[in-house]
Structure formats: structure tokens, C-alpha cells
Amino acid sequence: MLELVREKQNDFSIGDMTVTGYGGVVCAEAGGPPPGMGCAGRGIIAALEKLKEKGAYETFRPDVVFYDVLGDVVCGGFTMPMRRGYADSVLIVTSGETMALHAAANIAEAIRNFRGRGYAGLGGLILNRRNVKGEDAKVDAFAEELGTRVIGTLDYSETVQNAEELGKTVMEAFPESEMAGQYRRLADAVLRACEEEKPC
Question: What is the pTM of this model?
């Protein structure tokens, strides 16, 4: 989206900003500044505002909106959607690896800093297993330390890599696989967690 803004100013449509994928899922890529130049946080909020300005939410009328934000560096790029009221709940995806837990702790701290201001709260953790020794116990203990819970888990699986090589989602490429079943269970858990915060 930011490339569109740079190249065409405001002379583009919602269709130019989005791609509709498998199952009618509408996707938009915010983009960002060239590496080492500019602020990713400002880029993210500019993209969100452009979606709103172009009427994307009214046009597509989505059931649920997910923002997939890289959280290993907790900067304005992560917090801007929370500040502006775009999100109801934050779900942190982590493994039991030390650096992943460190990044998750930083994200949780950022969320804590906004407590009491009406911004998005921590809805829970999603364990994306990397087959680390004692991984489930580590992440359960981490969740308890944060005062939250693990709402869902995903196994490390070659099915995901196989689907990526086909340029498809697991649900599209291998709908009857065990991994597809895990994604369905996770989707149900995410919806329940979301509805506990606010109706999605």
C-alpha cells in the first residue's frame, strides 16, 4: 500500500490495495520504508488509515480483521494500531525458544503500558511449537507469569512448508490433514478469546 501511495498519491482503488485469496480472505500488505530509512510505525498507521479512507471495511464487511505485526522490535509500528482503536485484542504468537519468549515479554510490556486507556488488551498466547525441550511447560509458565493463558497451539509440521512450496495455505492444499485440524481448532479458540474481550 505504501508503494501505491508513493507512486500514485491517492489515485488508486480498494482493488489496487487488496488481494482476495482462498476462502474469500481479503489480504492487504502495508509495506514500509526502504530498509534503514523512515519509520515502520508511521507506515503501518498510514496503511490502516488509507484502508479506512478508501472504505475497505464497509466494502468487504469482514467478519474478523487480523493485523499480523512483527513484534520482535516493539516500536510504534506495533503500538499504533492499539492506540488508534483498530484492535480489540492482542494475541502473541511465540514458541518456547528463549529469544521468542524475550520478544513476547517485550510485547506484553508494551500492552501493559497502555492498560487503563481503553486500548487493546492481551487476549492470550498462541504456542507455535519449535520442538524445544520442555516447550509446553515453559510457555505455560510464561503465560502464568504474564497473568494470561495459552489459548491455542500449533505443532511444528512439514505440512506447512509443503503448502508454502505450492503457494497455498494448509487449509487449501491439505484440508484433511492433522495440521488443518489444528488450524480449525485454533480459529475457534481465537474467536472465543476475541468475543470475551468484545464481540468480533
Answer: 0.88
